From TrEMBL:
InterPro entries recorded: NAD(P)-bd_dom_sf, Sc_DH/Rdtase_CS, SDR_fam
Keyword NAD: no
Record protein name field: Short-chain dehydrogenase
PROSITE patterns: ADH_SHORT
GO MF annotation list: oxidoreductase activity
SUPFAM superfamilies associated with the record: NAD(P)-binding Rossmann-fold domains
Amino acid sequence: MNAPLVFITGASSGIGQALARRYAQAGWRLALVARRADELQAWVLAQGLDAERVQVYRADVADLESIAEAGRLCIERQGLPDVVVASAGISIGMDTAIREDLGVLQETLAINNVGLAATFHPFVGAMRARRAGTLVGIASVAAIRGLPGHGAYCASKAAVVAYCESLRGECRDSGVRVVTILPGYVATPLTARNPYSMPFLLSAEQFAERAFRAISSGASYRVIPWQMGVVAKLMRLLPNPLFDRLFAGRGRKPRRGETAS
C-alpha cells in the first residue's frame, strides 16, 4: 500500500473516469468521488480493480460539507493524497433574458468554481505541512473567450484559470504544485449534445493520457491538445468586431431541456 494516491472528483463518467483508469494503469491507489456512487462502484468492479487499492466516496461538490467530508474520510482511510484532481463539472447553455437560466449560472458557478475550491480545501494545509502534493484544476479552452449561449460555462472556466493561478502563488515555496489543465474538445457526455463542429476532438482516453503526462511532468498550465491552445490564443488576439462576426452563426449550447439543433 505504498503506491501513490490520487483523489478524483467527477469520476463516474467522462474525463474524471478516464483519468481514474489511467492512474490505475500506472499502479496508483484511487480515491474516487461522485454523486452517483453506486454507478461508480459498479464501474470499479467492472474494471476488475483491486478493492484494496480503490475507495469510492459519495459526495456532491456543490455541497461544501459533503465534499469536505469526502476529503476527511479519504485522509482517514487512505492517507493524504499525492495528487488531487478536481474534474467534476457541468456545461449547460443559458440565455440571460430567461429568468430560470440565472439558476443555471448559479448552479454552474457553485459546481465548477466553489466546488473546485471545496475539493482542494481538505488537503491544502496538510500538503503544505508535508511540503509535497499536487492540486489539479480542470478548466477549458472555453475560458479564453466567451461564446454565445455558453456564458455560464465560459465564465466558470475563466474563473478556474484565475483561481488556480492565485492558488499557485499562495502555494509557492510550500512544496505544493498547482496545475491548470485546459481541455479542448473531448468526447464525453458534456460535449455529446454540442450542435457545432469540434475541431481536434479527442477521446476521453487520449485526453487522460496527455493530462497524466502533463501532471507528472510538473507543468503548471497545459492546453490539451496543443493545437487548441494555438487556436485559443489566436481567438484572443482577434479584434472584438471580427470575433463577433466569426461566431455570429455558430450553434449555441442547448439550454436545459432543449434539443440540440
